[in-house]
């Protein structure tokens, strides 16, 4: 017999697969896109787009189309500037970068217009009232013995400043506790009645100021027989401030993280303690802003003050009797006079009113402090001192002689043989 030898054929080695991707050395290196900062190409694109937009408007308004008007020229220039700037940016960047650059220009333009308008209003008012503001008697005298023909060295707005401060203090004393309490109620006790209250508050936000003045005039003066006074004006101003404070405070309280409330309740704190020690301190900065928004709304009211407080040129420090005037009402009375001195007094009073609002805003920010998670140097030192006191107290509790788990009787000393007695 002959042996048959079976020879297995081994498969031929497969050919190396062709790599679908190019080697890393052939790929261009990744370069992160620059988000902020100023680049040479960006500045050149911005200036070129601005010049091109201006030239396009000159051609349209002067040669190609029968357009006219300064506002139309400005709008056309700005639209052409944005379009050309997007095209120039698209030559170097992708679509996302183009949208980012264009929106950045739009936002910067809006911010510039806003601050320009604010500077124009403040600067124009201060410039027109500079003649009255330069005299010291303008802040210390009233207009009882002065008339429209008297120079600026006679008379002042002391009566209006005192009236504004008095009415605003009365309105704040009414609005702050009621507004914050109502905002806490809307935030912490949801239900049908809270939705009804929120609807009423939103409706009162659009309440005309003359209606608030008429309501207080009809109830307080005509109904109860009281006389016109700063107290009645404070009531009318509080009606205007209350919905603003409630809505702003409600929005701020909604931003407090729910985990803080849950943690306080998990530790066994009742609802009122959670609100008083957790929610309100966390939202303190925002609540101060809400109060300032309401104060800015009420401090500039004129018609409710005229209906409820009347008008007087003399200084009246008693808010419960006699008419009292505010700065907005004094401004209205001064500027309607044709005499230049009275007009200067009116613009000076308006500048003082703006300065008063700024001072109240600064005071509220100081009282409100910083936002949650941010401490001043004084607060940081106070927290560090409290932490050191806590560490010392814990060390005393864990001392050998004061330990809660220490035995009541000390162990006996060992004898010579090593055993206890």
Element-level helix/strand string: HHHHHHHHHHHHHHHH
Give start-end ranges of low-pLDDT stretches.
1-10, 14-22, 403-421
Distance between the termini: 104 Å
Mean pLDDT: 81
Percentage of residues in strands: under 5%
Number of strands: 0
Q: Helical content, roughly?
A: 55-70%
CATH architecture level-2 label of the largest domain: Orthogonal Bundle
Protein name: Phosphate transport system permease protein PstA
Region (Disordered): 371-390
Keywords: Cell membrane, Membrane, Phosphate transport, Transmembrane, Transmembrane helix, Transport
Organism: Streptomyces lutosisoli
How would you characterize the overall build of this protein?
Helices cover 65% and strands 0% of the residues. The protein has 421 residues and is mainly alpha-helical. It folds into 2 domains: 40-128, no CATH class; 139-380, MetI-like (MetI-like fold).
Keywords:
transmembrane, Phosphate_PstA, 2 domains, mainly alpha, 421 residues, MetI-like fold, extended, disordered C terminus
């Amino acid at each position: 017999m002959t042996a048959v030898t079976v020879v297995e054929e081994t498969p031929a080695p497969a050919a190396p697969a062709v790599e679908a991707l190019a080697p890393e050395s052939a790929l261009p290196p990744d370069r992160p896109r620059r988000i902020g900062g100023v680049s040479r190409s960006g500045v050149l694109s911005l200036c070129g787009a601005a010049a091109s937009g201006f030239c396009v408007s000159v051609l349209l308004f002067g040669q190609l189309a029968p357009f006219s008007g300064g506002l139309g020229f400005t709008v056309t220039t700005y639209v052409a500037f944005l379009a050309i700037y997007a095209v120039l940016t698209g030559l170097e960047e992708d679509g996302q970068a183009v949208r980012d650059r264009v929106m950045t220009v739009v936002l910067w333009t809006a911010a510039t217009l806003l601050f320009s308008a604010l500077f124009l209003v403040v600067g124009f008012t201060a410039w027109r009232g500079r003649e009255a503001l330069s005299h010291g008697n303008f802040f210390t005298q009233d207009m009882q013995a002065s008339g429209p023909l008297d120079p600026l060295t006679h008379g002042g707005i002391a009566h209006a400043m005192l009236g504004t401060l008095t009415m605003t203090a009365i309105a704040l004393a009414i609005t702050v506790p009621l507004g914050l309490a109502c905002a806490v109620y809307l935030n912490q006790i949801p239900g049908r009645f809270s939705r009804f209250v929120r609807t009423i508050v939103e409706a009162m936000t659009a309440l005309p100021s003359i209606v608030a003045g008429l309501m207080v005039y009809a109830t307080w003066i005509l109904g109860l027989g009281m006389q016109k006074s700063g107290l009645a004006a404070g009531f009318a101003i509080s009606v205007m401030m209350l919905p603003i404070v409630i809505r702003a405070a409600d929005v701020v309280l909604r931003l407090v993280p729910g985990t803080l409330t849950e943690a306080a309740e998990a530790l066994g704190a009742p609802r009122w303690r959670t609100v008083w020690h957790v929610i309100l301190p966390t939202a303190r900065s925002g609540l101060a802003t809400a109060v300032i928004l309401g104060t800015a709304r009420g401090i500039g009211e004129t018609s409710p003050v005229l209906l409820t407080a009347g008008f007087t040129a003399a200084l009246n420090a008693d808010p419960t009797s006699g008419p009292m005037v505010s700065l907005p009402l004094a401004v209205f009375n001064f500027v309607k006079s044709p005499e230049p001195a009275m007009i200067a007094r009116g613009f000076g009073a308006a500048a003082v009113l703006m300065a008063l609002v700024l001072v109240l805003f600064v005071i509220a920010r100081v009282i409100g402090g910083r936002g949650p998670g941010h401490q001043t140097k004084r607060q940081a030192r106070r927290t560090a001192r409290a932490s050191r006191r806590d560490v010392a107290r814990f060390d005393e509790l864990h001392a050998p002689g004061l330990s809660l788990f220490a035995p009541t009787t000390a162990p006996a000393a060992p004898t010579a043989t090593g055993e206890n007695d």
